[in-house]
Amino acid sequence: MLTFVLRRLLLSIPTLLFISLVIFLLVDFAPGSPASEIPLTVPPEVRAKILESMGVNAPLHERYLLWLKQFFWVEPLHAFDATFGTSYSEGMQRIISYQSRAPVFDIIAQRIPQTLTVVGSAYLIGVAIALPIGIYSAYRQYSWFDQLGTFVAMVGFSVPTFFTGVLLILIFAVGLGWFPSIYDTTLKVTDWDSFVQQARQMTMPVMVLALYNAAQISRYMRSSMLDNLGQDYVRTARAKGMNERVVLLKHVLRNSLIPVVTVIALGIPTIFGGAIITEQVFKVNGLGAALIGAIHANDLPMVQTLTFIFAVLIVMFNLVADILYGILDPRIRYD
Of 71, 94, 117, at which residue does a domain stop? Predict the structure, then answer.
């Protein structure tokens, strides 16, 4: 296993370099320019100095290599300095947002708590709901519970989140007045009242995302359980007189989780990426909203950095899924 992990980590280096080049070129060649955000009343010589300070006039390969250096060396070094009080990154140029003229990673650090709070909670709740529903639906195939679970999953997976979000706002915010329709990102939880207020404003966006995540994962769980329930080892275990709970939870569930782990692990990067549509509907000032704002403002460093972070997370959690395979099924060996 250790050899496999090291091999995959080494393989991920050229993979991420290639992905970074593709992202950089796609974003850089996309229509739009930072110059379009500068007011027309600005004199030409001042406009030229602004663009020069942004570095947009430098050759393409220089800008790409500088961005890689900043992403993999300068920013981690700055984080180390901020954590341990050192000054190794002093004077080094960081990745700067065209839109706000602030370091991109500082903006990400400000936005990520909102994203993790809402999207992360929704993902955990979705997984916690989906697994038992998928297991019981497979065990009681074609029962009323299975039929209801299938219907809810189809609705949750088919209906877009912007429609579900607006529908919940109309019912619970406008009609009943139970929850606020706009997420207050400035709220700080300091006492019980502020905690209740935070829970109330999280309820609707978390419900929307949890329904979508649970619908997808429960269908994978049900399908995987049904595949294993018909296997010979299950009939053998039952013929030996094993308790049905032991057969289901110890043998069938463990084997059934192997493909589902991939779905869950690859869904984790979406937590950090934010739920772009849902964040827009409920005005959650998270990473998804930051990405949309950067695209509208032609903020190339922000778009490139956020997109590449998502790619790094996907590669990393692919490796995590492979490691979990070996833990769930000791028969799997990576030689």
Answer: 94
- Tell me how many domains the chain contains: 2
Residues 67 and 115 in one domain: no
Which tens digits make up the pLDDT trace of 91-109?
Answer: 777 887 877 778 888 888 8
Which pTM does this prediction carry? Answer: 0.75
Q: Is 103 helix (H, G, I), strand (E, B) or coil?
A: strand
CA pseudo-torsion sign 55, 60, 65, 71: positive
- 4, 325 in Cβ contact below 8 A? no
Assess whether 120 and 83 both reside in one domain: no
- Rounded to whole angstroms, how far apart are CA atoms 260 and 217? 7
Q: Is the domain of 223 the same as that of 267?
A: yes
- Tell me whether residue 135 is exposed, middle or buried, using C-beta atoms within 10 angstroms of its C-beta: 0 to 12, 13 to 18, 19 or more: buried
Determine the residue type at 243.
N
Range 143-166 average pLDDT: 81
